Amino acid sequence: MTKGVKIVTIGGGSSYTPELMEGFIKRYDELPIREIWLVDIEAGKEKLEIVGAMAQRMWDASPYDVKIHLTLDRKEALKDADFVTTQFRVGLLNARVKDERIPFYYGMLGQETNGAGGMFKAFRTIPIILEIVEDMKKLCPDAWLVNFTNPSGMVTEAIIRYGKWDRVMGLCNVPVMATMTEPKALGVEKDDLIYKFAGLNHFHWHKVADTKGHDITYKVIDAMFDKDAGLPKNIYDIPFYREQLEQMGMIPCGYHRYYYREEEMLNHGLEEYNTVGTRAQQVKETEAELFELYKDPNLDHKPEQLQKRGGAYYSDAACETIAAIYGNKNTQIVVSTKNDGAVPDLPADCVVEVTAYVGAQGARNVAFGELPTAEKGWLQVMKAMELLTIEAAVTGDYGTALQAFTINPLIRSGETAKKIMDELFIAHKKHLPQFAETIARLEAEGVTVQDEIAKNLD
Amino acid sequence: MTKGVKIVTIGGGSSYTPELMEGFIKRYDELPIREIWLVDIEAGKEKLEIVGAMAQRMWDASPYDVKIHLTLDRKEALKDADFVTTQFRVGLLNARVKDERIPFYYGMLGQETNGAGGMFKAFRTIPIILEIVEDMKKLCPDAWLVNFTNPSGMVTEAIIRYGKWDRVMGLCNVPVMATMTEPKALGVEKDDLIYKFAGLNHFHWHKVADTKGHDITYKVIDAMFDKDAGLPKNIYDIPFYREQLEQMGMIPCGYHRYYYREEEMLNHGLEEYNTVGTRAQQVKETEAELFELYKDPNLDHKPEQLQKRGGAYYSDAACETIAAIYGNKNTQIVVSTKNDGAVPDLPADCVVEVTAYVGAQGARNVAFGELPTAEKGWLQVMKAMELLTIEAAVTGDYGTALQAFTINPLIRSGETAKKIMDELFIAHKKHLPQFAETIARLEAEGVTVQDEIAKNLD
Amino acid sequence: MTKGVKIVTIGGGSSYTPELMEGFIKRYDELPIREIWLVDIEAGKEKLEIVGAMAQRMWDASPYDVKIHLTLDRKEALKDADFVTTQFRVGLLNARVKDERIPFYYGMLGQETNGAGGMFKAFRTIPIILEIVEDMKKLCPDAWLVNFTNPSGMVTEAIIRYGKWDRVMGLCNVPVMATMTEPKALGVEKDDLIYKFAGLNHFHWHKVADTKGHDITYKVIDAMFDKDAGLPKNIYDIPFYREQLEQMGMIPCGYHRYYYREEEMLNHGLEEYNTVGTRAQQVKETEAELFELYKDPNLDHKPEQLQKRGGAYYSDAACETIAAIYGNKNTQIVVSTKNDGAVPDLPADCVVEVTAYVGAQGARNVAFGELPTAEKGWLQVMKAMELLTIEAAVTGDYGTALQAFTINPLIRSGETAKKIMDELFIAHKKHLPQFAETIARLEAEGVTVQDEIAKNLD
Amino acid sequence: MTKGVKIVTIGGGSSYTPELMEGFIKRYDELPIREIWLVDIEAGKEKLEIVGAMAQRMWDASPYDVKIHLTLDRKEALKDADFVTTQFRVGLLNARVKDERIPFYYGMLGQETNGAGGMFKAFRTIPIILEIVEDMKKLCPDAWLVNFTNPSGMVTEAIIRYGKWDRVMGLCNVPVMATMTEPKALGVEKDDLIYKFAGLNHFHWHKVADTKGHDITYKVIDAMFDKDAGLPKNIYDIPFYREQLEQMGMIPCGYHRYYYREEEMLNHGLEEYNTVGTRAQQVKETEAELFELYKDPNLDHKPEQLQKRGGAYYSDAACETIAAIYGNKNTQIVVSTKNDGAVPDLPADCVVEVTAYVGAQGARNVAFGELPTAEKGWLQVMKAMELLTIEAAVTGDYGTALQAFTINPLIRSGETAKKIMDELFIAHKKHLPQFAETIARLEAEGVTVQDEIAKNLD
Q: Quick one: which residues bind substrate (chains A, B, C, D) (predicted)?
């Protein structure tokens, strides 16, 4: 019998891989890795080789003997894997640029995981993740799938609902950030606070208690409105309305700004669109710099610059999750997972993002209890939007996509919304085979992408 | 023991009263009325007298001996009433003008029952209706309350939830319109179609079947996209998206345009705001004309012009409902009523608008069964918005009002929304005693109404 | 195109058929029947011929020209049927004798629709009804199935859940009886009372209101404890406990005696078992007499004696239901039907028995609202028992059958219950092909029927 | 500010107290106790003094300086308590003897926490625990209440539902036993197994997984049917039916024998009743022996004989729970606690018994997910029985008590059940002030206790 753990990373050529390696090296004692397979597609081959060499150097500089395998053959890699992590991006950053620029062209929000962009990312990603799951059923039926491909919640829901695969956990770094910054703002240690999160990916709230068991969420709210406390810096830093937070008695996540301060977030995005370029365009530059660094044959540790890429702690969360499963550690982690009642306002069989104790059986979700009226309503409409998006991603049905668009709180329904949707279908044609019929019709109707930059990306 | 039925109409000075009278006269044989009390407030005294005289003339021209009583003393009127109808408008049409113009000033939808305006109408109306209910508990505990004051669903919910009064039914003319126009469009008789409605007031869907029991909803959808069929003319006539209707397999109500074609409905409203004036301003003119007509001592029947006032069949629906309760007729009527499971996607104890068989016990709701994913999500978020609005109306809590505003799908959250909300508080100061503290704070902060017309209404 | 309605009655040789004919003759004006097909199996051929001739005589004596067809070929009969009624009894009355005597032999309740007997009736009946539904899908996909084969609720649930056939309604005469006897007991007319039923077949409660809409259930409770009122005579007449009825504020159905007065009902059954024979044995005699009567070539109307057979009004309810569907009459009938939320304490997709307005679309269930704590608990456990029984009937799984037995409130779990179950498997071997494996095992273990009479029935 | 933890034990004169002391001494390092107050009532004064002296000796023999206070004044003790444990028994063991013997006299199960006896224990206990909670609100509003007075689940539910006190946890030793014996039976260590429990107190099931995350519940089932494995010895050792366990895929708790093998458990109880005496009578002897031991001024540690008293590990579980809360340890403990969705088949606001991670905020319940059909039905009916019992305990309503009795699966409804209930009211008259009216009526009707032993206990 082979010894040690086999890790497979789909989308292995990602700039995040060094953080993942660092996380594994740091935890080698509790997670004895035998081999790591980085998988990518033909289009990502060059990056895969650069980052793969870098990854091997990192391990070589460590006390451990771990071999990095690079491959374009997913099936070869998956054979007998223990853990599979997914961090791929269908259509690469250029697809994200389109997700952002096409809505902004029409004055609506273009964003990676929210609004129209997030929905098209789901349309592209879900068919691929379902293929991966089918491979896993054959090649590594005992493996765990640790997903951090966005939109992480919808991807996880698709895996469980349509892929019928339960050994999966969706990760996100947003809750990690909160539990790191808030103690500092309150001037206490992380272990002085007790956290309970509930909601959906990029749409959750949390409560904080002290070690006497008393709810001190209001103190965090105080800190959020105290400039010196410096809370929270993720996403564009428009403040929430204090009365709203006090009414709910919970802390929203950073992405809630898109919903609670829709106007300002849109305006900020439009300003970037019209000046420095959207977030994906900025990230592309950062990534180029990162890959230049990674090429340096002397670099054998994660460079500082990766931090500013965004998504810090994402990979670390993945490593921690894997170590918790492997070692049955019962570590508190916030994960996307089957609800099972933890959020009683949503069906027991859908995916939620909640505090869980993670061990060999996966996530043991902490039951949060019923949410207040407003948050319950938000969750229910967002879950409907997610389910419709996933259904459209699987069936390729135009009407279902339109229903999803219409119910999305960040999309103003009507002619412009439909134009945006139609252009996005055209723009992502290559990655949306399930919508082939729709796209043919739209082409026949003469729909074309209007934003010049988006139009001219591969 | 007295014989015959005593009807009390709160807001009796309304221009709708003649339609109500017509409805009662038409149904005298099954609903033998003894006396009718029209109640209004000091500010409406003149209108009350005009319409009261007109009403008496209508009865005098009928074969029936019914006495119209006019009073400003609600308690005097309510004593031993059998049925109480409510059609009052707190702040009269001027308040509605403010509800419409203040949001439009900032580029958002101003509308009587949807968006910001509908919420403030609830804030003004709910405290008054709860006072009426308290009076009824003492003065006519066996009476039925037939409400058609808007927002009719929220008002009904407030009556049941906070007023703890179950003998109430909320009415709306929208479903009546559908069941009158659709058979014509299909070239069949009304009795050839079987209807089932479910949802919330101004936010319901329906299905249609033929007398073989087969669903023919798709035929109505066909007719909606067939210009010659002439369906539906209520509200500004922007078409729904056909793919969306086919996906849901149901017919939305006219007000769904605000949600499914948000952009166009907003633009249309803004255009009216900037040109002919908002709907309330138009209605004011119609009303003035109507009252001129009503003054004519020779007029003893409902004039044709009332039809164009909007809200046709509203009063007729009320008369039909009263007759159905009185005669235990089991008439099919679409009403706002306690859910009791008819819409299983919403709590059993909230108010919904559904097809019911109305008789002596009130509404016997037809169980609709679970709705499709999108409609379920819509209902749940709208019910959350309603519950928050009602809670804010009762408690006067600013944070709760802000939460309601934020979750309302027709309000883009952020600074402008908050400005609109704050100005509306100032504009309606006289009618919002429960928010006195908030309004004092806003006044201290210097908030004032920006729209010149709204500002200068009493 | 053919004119008039085609009725098919499976189990047409039943002694009930004359009541069915009477019901159709009475309603011919609203339900113009063209032809009636009576279907039975080889073993029932003689009865079919007797009752078939009798049925034809009844029509011949009527003003209407309707042809009775007799056949053993179900498929021939089903072709183009408009309505199919099912009143068959797998294994005939001998099977019922076994269902009754085998439990009684061991001191437990033996009854047609409750306890062990009712479960085995479900095991025998459900596979056959699912075959009929498959035939209907091919031969008369537009037909309605009106079932009054017991256990009527479970059979209806199986048809919808496993047969995926929605055009079905389950009938029972128990609610009919209540609405006929209670008005008499109160000294009022039927139309003076408003009824609302909810629950499961043979396990429902109802509330009564007067035509002022006031609940007067307590008056019916009074009448039940007033000897002269003579309420209710169905089933062995042991009184309910008054305090219990007052606590629930509802009237249980007669079968609730098995659950609320378990001890007395068991003792009564045991006494009959030990003396006059069980109910089925009594019914066999009645039936023999009936068939003797039916042979009389001069008899052309339903004989009085049929009344005492039990199940009076059963067939009449079926005729009324068929007429209501055919004529889209919106008649109030209590039926077993898909819940759709009418009983919010049970899943929306299971079958319940409730007041419905029956028309062309089938049942439009009246939403009953949440039940009190005790009745909610009873319903939930009984539905679990039903679902397990149906699942066992379909899968033939022994463990599932055992779980159903164990949760059944009328079965005391343990060794004796298991013995009863095992003997019933042996006794009904011929009609339980799905349990062939289990039965073979039990035979190998030497299980045999102990009750001498049950053992010696074919 | 005072340092160290103040513990108050209501029912401090219990024979369990030495185990509690041992548990605290063992955990002194993590739970630094300052003082312990043992509270009892006048009738228990002698025992309190014996066990109090013994407790002080135990601490004196330890390295720690902890003072034991004895008092009959509950309020004095509760002042500023940190933790309150409740292990009192209203009416002492004599009341339990009555709970057991009166039902057995009539051939029904008499048992401490199940059936009629358990319900009357709830009737006696709940009013007292609610008084304690009222005291705590005033005297130690920050304290945690750790209850192990039976019926522990119902007592906890009453505290939360009617006492409106959330800082409570109900404990039971049954799950502890399972997690101690099953690993041994499988030949593995406790840490090799992952447990997940869900259900109600004395009515829960569990699943077991290995540290690969694979469900191995079936292996435990195997072990249960392997004589040598020696599983499980608690309660009278009648085996479950293997097919039933395999169908559910879960392990029932020992008390499920009362429901799954009702016949055998009843017969066993009747045999004891007729020979050696009921369990309470046996326990009385054990207790007498224990108190003799406790009197020994040289005894300063928990004697071996306490083990056979039953309820082993109960007090240890309490100490562990207190330490986990105090130290925010996130220890896995199975507790009775507010559901919050962990068992989605029951309302989110009721009390369930589930695996939880216990820390400063109390229980963080692990969401179990939906249960299979049979177990769902069982839970729902048992929760209905619990809620009715608690309601009757609070309101003193006879009809509600009768409904609770009727729905209890271990009580055969009817005349005998009513006799048992009525006699229990008479027998416990002194401790059921809320039922004074009922008891007066029963006395007037001449109801007396039939069992000679029960009748003659004070």
A: 96, 150
